[in-house]
UniProtKB/TrEMBL annotation:
<keyword id="KW-0472">Membrane</keyword>
<keyword id="KW-1003">Cell membrane</keyword>
<keyword id="KW-0812">Transmembrane</keyword>
<feature type="transmembrane region" description="Helical">
    <location>
        <begin position="30"/>
        <end position="52"/>
    </location>
</feature>
<protein>
    <submittedName>
        <fullName>ExbD/TolR family protein</fullName>
    </submittedName>
</protein>
<comment type="similarity">
    <text>Belongs to the ExbD/TolR family.</text>
</comment>
<keyword id="KW-0653">Protein transport</keyword>
<dbReference type="Pfam" id="PF02472">
    <property type="entry name" value="ExbD"/>
</dbReference>
<feature type="compositionally biased region" description="Gly residues">
    <location>
        <begin position="1"/>
        <end position="10"/>
    </location>
</feature>
<feature type="region of interest" description="Disordered">
    <location>
        <begin position="1"/>
        <end position="21"/>
    </location>
</feature>
<keyword id="KW-1133">Transmembrane helix</keyword>
<dbReference type="InterPro" id="IPR003400">
    <property type="entry name" value="ExbD"/>
</dbReference>
<keyword id="KW-0813">Transport</keyword>
Length: 148
């Protein structure tokens, strides 16, 4: 009978019926969100590399690996030439190519040439001729391999 009158029994009842605050943080939702964000950034990062929007021709060729120190030349549909992300004035390409420093091995860097598929073949050959005259003999032509 004395046990029934003590306050210990009522505390146990309160603990069962009420909720006590949880002392541990559940990190599973945080990890799930971070993994989804990581996947989104991994998918979109290669798409952000091409700063000048052009429509590349399609090809069934295998994709090549990208190397550090590559020089990117882009030809837009309207004939504008871009050195990396900078638009060049007509006739400025030879000067910019002459001012390009050699790579760490002392050779001219690899050039990736991106040209819109609606461009005239002669315009692309003009730019390739300028590259060759400036000493850039390793030129990769970039195509869209998603259609292959």
């Amino acid at each position: 009978m004395a046990m029934g009158l003590s306050g210990g029994g009522s505390r146990r009842g309160r603990r069962r019926g009420g909720r006590s605050p949880m002392a541990e943080i559940n990190v599973t939702p945080l990890v799930d969100v971070m993994l989804v964000l990581l996947i989104i950034f991994m998918v979109t990062a290669p798409l952000l590399k091409a700063a000048v929007p052009i429509e590349l021709p399609e090809s069934r060729a295998k994709a090549m690996s990208e190397e550090q120190g590559q020089l990117q030349i882009t030809l837009r549909r309207d004939g504008a030439v871009f050195y990396e992300d900078t638009e060049l004035a007509p006739g400025e390409l030879p000067d910019r190519l002459a001012a390009t420093p050699p790579g760490p091995d002392g050779k001219a860097p690899l050039v990736t040439l991106r040209a819109d598929k609606a461009l005239d073949y002669g315009r692309v050959m003009e730019v390739m001729g300028e590259l060759n005259r400036a000493g850039f003999t390793s030129i990769s032509l970039v195509t869209d391999v998603s259609g292959g």
